[in-house]
Specification:
With 452 residues, this protein is mostly helical. 83% of the residues lie in helices and 0% in strands.
C-alpha cells in the first residue's frame, strides 16, 4: 500500500476518533469553565476531583484499550466470534471494576486530606466524587463498546453520540451549578450530576448502535450477555491490567503534580488545572491517532503483514508529529488568551492565575512533543498486543524519573510550579524514547525466516 493510501486510511479512521476524543474532552472543559465562573475554591476542588476520578478511570480503561487491540487483530484474522467474546467480557470486567471502586469515591475526602490537601477543598472534592463515582461503571462499559466500534472502523457515530452528550452536560451544568430555572444551586455537585448523565447517555446510545447497526447485527454482541466466558474473561483481564497500569503510571504523575501544586497554593493549583486542560485538549488529537494506530496495527498484525504494519506506523507517527509542532506555536503565542477563557474577568484572582497559566503552557509546549511520542508508541504496541514491557517502562519513567524530578525542581531547587512542570517533561521524554525504541526493534517488524 502506498504511503498516501496509508495516510488517507488513517485520516478516514482517525478523524472521527479525534473529533469524538475532543468532544469527550469538552465534557471536562465545560465543567472546568462553568465551575471556574462559579468560584476559585470550587475550581480547585474540581481539579482535585477530576484528577482523582481519572486516576481510577484510567486503570479500568486498560480493559477497553486491550479490547481494541484484540478485536482489531481478530477482525484482521477474520474471526468475528473471538471479537464478540472479547468485547462482552470486557464489558463484564468494566462493570465489576466500577462497582468495586465505589468505596474509594465515597471516602475520597479523607484520602485527599491524608495527601496534604486543605480540608475545605478536600470536602468540596468529596461532594463531587460521591456522585461522579457512580459514573465509573457506565463510563468504562461505554469505552469498551467504543473500542469495539473503533476496531470495526465505525467511528463517525462515536463523534455524533459524544457531541450529544456534550450538549446534555452543558445544559445540566447550567441548570444545576448556578441554580437556574428554579433548580437548587449545587456548585460542584451539579457538575458531577451533569457528567454522570452524559456518560449514561453515551453508553446507551453506543450500545444500541453496536447491537442494531447494519453490518453488525449478525455478530449478536449482546445475545446471552449474562453467560460468562471465562477463557475470554481472563485473556482480556491479563492484557488489560498492564495497559491500565501503564495509563495509571502516567496519570499518577499528573495526579502527583496536582497534589504538589496544591501544596504551593490555591491560585497555582487553579492555573495548573487550566494549563492541563488546554494541553489535554490538543493531546486528544494524538490519542485519536493512537487509537487509529492500534486498529491499523492490529489489523496488520492479525494478517501477519510486517510491511503493512511498518508503513502504517510511519504514516501515523508523522501525522502526529506534524500536529505537535503546530501545537507548540499555539501554546507559545496564545497562552494568555487560552488561560483567560477559563476565568471570570471580574474575579480579583484572575490576573495572577493568568500569569501562572502562561508560564505553565510555555513548558507544556515542550512536553507535548514527548507526550505524543509515548502515546503513539503505546498505540502501536497495543496493536501488536505487547503490553507488559511497556508497563514497566512507564513505571520507571513516571515514578522513578518524572515524579521525583518534579519534586526536586519545585521544592529542593525552589523553582515552584514551573520546575514541577519541567519534571513532567523529563518523565515523558524517558517514556517516549524507550517505547518508540521497543516498537521499531520488535519481532513484529523483523520476523525470523522460517526454518528450512
Amino acid at each position: 500500500m502506498p504511503l498516501a493510501r496509508h495516510v488517507r486510511a488513517i485520516f478516514t479512521l482517525g478523524l472521527p476518533l479525534i473529533g469524538s476524543n475532543l468532544a469527550q474532552m469538552l465534557l471536562n472543559v465545560t465543567d472546568t469553565v462553568m465551575v471556574g465562573w462559579y468560584g476559585v475554591e470550587a475550581l480547585a476542588a474540581l481539579v482535585l476531583g477530576t484528577s482523582y476520578f481519572f486516576s481510577i478511570f484510567m486503570l479500568g480503561n486498560g480493559i477497553a484499550l486491550a479490547v481494541m487491540g484484540r478485536v482489531s487483530a481478530s477482525l484482521g484474522a477474520d474471526d468475528e466470534v473471538q471479537a464478540r467474546r472479547d468485547t462482552r467480557m470486557g464489558i463484564w470486567l468494566s462493570i465489576l471494576f466500577g462497582v468495586a471502586m465505589l468505596p474509594l469515591f465515597w471516602n475520597s475526602g479523607a484520602v485527599l486530606e491524608l495527601l496534604g490537601q486543605k480540608p475545605e477543598i478536600a470536602a468540596l472534592a468529596q461532594d463531587y466524587l460521591r456522585i461522579l463515582g457512580f459514573a465509573l461503571a457506565p463510563g468504562l462499559a461505554m469505552m469498551v463498546i467504543r473500542s469495539y466500534l473503533s476496531a470495526q472502523e465505525r467511528t463517525a457515530v462515536l463523534l455524533w453520540i459524544t457531541l450529544a452528550a456534550v450538549l446534555l452536560n452543558a445544559g445540566v451544568n447550567w441548570i444545576l451549578i448556578f441554580g437556574n430555572w428554579g433548580a437548587p444551586e449545587l456548585g460542584v455537585r451539579g457538575a458531577a450530576i451533569a457528567s454522570l448523565s452524559a456518560m449514561v447517555l453515551n453508553l446507551v446510545a453506543q450500545a444500541i448502535y453496536a447491537a442494531r447497526a447494519p453490518g453488525l447485527t449478525h455478530i449478536r454482541l449482546f445475545q446471552r450477555f449474562w453467560r460468562p466466558d471465562w477463557e475470554a474473561f481472563w485473556i482480556v483481564a491479563k492484557m488489560g491490567l498492564p495497559v491500565g497500569l501503564t495509563s495509571v503510571a502516567e496519570g499518577s504523575m499528573f495526579q502527583a503534580s496536582a497534589l504538589m501544586m496544591g501544596w504551593i497554593g490555591t491560585v497555582e493549583l487553579a492555573a495548573h488545572g487550566i494549563a492541563l486542560q488546554v494541553s489535554s485538549i490538543t493531546f486528544m488529537v494524538h490519542v485519536g491517532l493512537s487509537n487509529a494506530a492500534t486498529v491499523r496495527a492490529g489489523r496488520a498484525h492479525g494478517r501477519r503483514d510486517p510491511r503493512l504494519l511498518r508503513d502504517g506506523a510511519l504514516a501515523v507517527t508523522g501525522m502526529s508529529l506534524g500536529f505537535g509542532l503546530l501545537t507548540v506555536a499555539v501554546f507559545v503565542f496564545a497562552g494568555p488568551w487560552l488561560t483567560r477563557l477559563f476565568l471570570d474577568a471580574d474575579n480579583p484572582a484572575t490576573p495572577e492565575i493568568v500569569l501562572y497559566g502562561v508560564r505553565f503552557l510555555m513548558v507544556a509546549a515542550i512536553f507535548q512533543l514527548f507526550d505524543l511520542m509515548q502515546v503513539m508508541a503505546l498505540g502501536l504496541l497495543r496493536g501488536v498486543q505487547d503490553t507488559r514491557v511497556p508497563m514497566w517502562m512507564a513505571v520507571a519513567s513516571y515514578w522513578l524519573i518524572g515524579i521525583p524530578a518534579s519534586y526536586f525542581l519545585a521544592f529542593t531547587l525552589d523553582l515552584g510550579g514551573v520546575g514541577l512542570w519541567f519534571g513532567l517533561v523529563l518523565g515523558l521524554a524517558s517514556a517516549g524514547a524507550m517505547m518508540m525504541r521497543r516498537f521499531w526493534r520488535g519481532a513484529w517488524l523483523h520476523p525470523r525466516p522460517a526454518a528450512a
